[in-house]
Amino acid sequence: MISQEKKREIANRLNERIQELTCPMCRQHGFVIADGYFSHYLQEDIKSVSIGGPSIPTIAIVCTNCGFVSQHALGVLGMLPQNTEKDTEKK
Going along 1-91, which residue ranges are E strands? Predict the structure, then answer.
């Protein structure tokens, strides 16, 4: 579960980048932040699936009227941990 503090930070980051957030399906303005993250693994072959490796971590917001789900990349929002020197040495 994502803490309320982290949800406030996510909401602030989204509000900085999106003016007047409106659901593209029903045009309402109410959203909630999902209680967990998604991780979309990048695939090298369309015919097979591998788990692990490079991914795009996202957070989802959900329209409180129609349930439309919108995902936003955490890296673009500046919310991924920065690589440490130790992480860089492993690559």
Answer: 31-41, 55-63, 69-73
